[in-house]
Amino acid sequence: MWSGPTEVAEAVARLRAGGLVAFPTETVYGLGADALNAAAVRRVFDVKGRPSTNPLIVHVTGPEMARTVAAEWPREAEQLAAAFWPGPLTLVLPRRRVVPDEVTGGGSTVAVRCPDHRLTLDLLEAFGGPLVGPSANPSGRISPTTAAHVREAFTPEQVYVLDGGPCTGGIESTVVKLGDPVRVLREGLITPEAIASVLGRMPERGSSSATHTLESPGQLASHYAPVTSTLLVDVSEVASRLAEVPRGVVLSHRPVDVSPPHRLLPMPTDARAYASALYAAMREADRLGADCILIVRPEAAGTPEERSVWNAVVDRLTRAATPGS
Fold first, then answer.
1. What is the rounded CA–CA span in Å between residue 59 and residue 303?
2. Residue 209 above 60 pLDDT?
3. Which residue from 177, 179, 228, 243 lies 20 to 30 Å from 287 (Cα-Cα)?
């Protein structure tokens, strides 16, 4: 059952006291703290075990609140916010001095977005200010898409959890740095093609930073990872890889022969449905206690929009299968 006004009031009290609150969004659950309270933000990093150099996204109710943390609000920001907010699009803009260094990883920009979830918008409105909200999970591990996932990771004393049901999008927001050129720093469900339809030009991909400062979250090589050893493989490799281990779990959107003691977890063939199901499926695979998880690599097929969503999915899978988490 969804949390209601009583739980929102408790969450606001926790936030004003410098505490942490997990909240739902359309992408994943976020670990919230007062974005303008440096001590509260440091608590987010401590609880997650997150590197202090990895910046956080600031969640807002809309452009008006975004302007309290962004020093500039160019025409492109207005256009993209009008088209995609509330929604899974994060905008990276020059920061105001009021934003603590802890939020930005010491960088000169701040990442802001307006989440598309009524419960969290109610929370933001009741709190009356911006909240940081990285994924509510230990750093580097699988992002949570239900309140139960958050409760598995943190105690009630560490984190107060608002339950808004399962997340529908399933992967983190698209991150766009505004400027000349506009750049997609992290791919997601808002595709470069959709952004181009609003701005009239295709954004470039990848960071332009010449320093070691991360411009946005989601840029670490190893991320979103199960505890179980995970490999991203072609469908032709599945049989030989399974022969190497006593028990494996296979996530596949394509037909593949998997016999006991191994286990097959079928995945959707539609890109957006796959994204929505991905993290829950990875968590289920982890719970099965196998020796390894094999994920059949999706192909970027279909329309340009569909290919971009598949690219975002493969980005998450590649980071999940990279050693180091």
1. 31
2. no
3. 243
How far, in Å, CA of 172 to CA of 35, rounded? Answer: 19
The CB density around residue 179, as the number of other CB atoms within 10 Å, is: 15
Q: Closest by alpha carbon to 185, among 213, 226, 225?
A: 213
- Compute the distance between CA of residue 103 and CA of residue 261 in angstroms, rounded to an integer: 46
CA distances, 29 to each of 20, 21, 96, 108 (Å): 13, 10, 26, 26
Residue 2, number of CB atoms within 10 A of its CB: 12
Place of tokens 């949390």: 3
User: Do residues 139 and 153 touch, judged by C-beta distance below 8 A?
Assistant: no
Euclidean distance between CA atoms 233 and 238, whole angstroms: 7
- 3-class SS of residue 199: helix
pLDDT digits (tens, 9 = 90+) for 40-85: 999 999 999 988 888 999 999 999 999 999 999 999 999 999 999 9
Side-chain-side CA neighbours of 297 within 13 Å: the count stands at 14
Instruction: Give me the residues paired with residue 296 across strands.
Output: 233
Rounded Cα distance, 97 and 112, in Å? 15
Question: Quick check: 69 and 112 in contact, CB under 8 A?
Answer: yes
Residue-wise pLDDT tens digits, 219-271: 554 567 788 999 999 999 999 999 999 999 999 999 999 999 999 999 999 99
pTM of the model: 0.91
Per the CB < 8 A criterion, the answer to whether 300 and 258 are in contact is no
Alpha carbon of residue 46 to chain centroid: 19
Residue 283 in contact with residue 225, Cβ under 8 Å? Answer: no
Alpha-carbon distance values, 206 to 2, 10, 173, 192 (Å): 37, 40, 15, 12
Phi, psi of 312 (to 5 degrees): -65, -40
Q: Which of 15, 92, 2 is nearest to 55 (CA)?
A: 92
Q: And the tokens for 122?
A: 């109610």
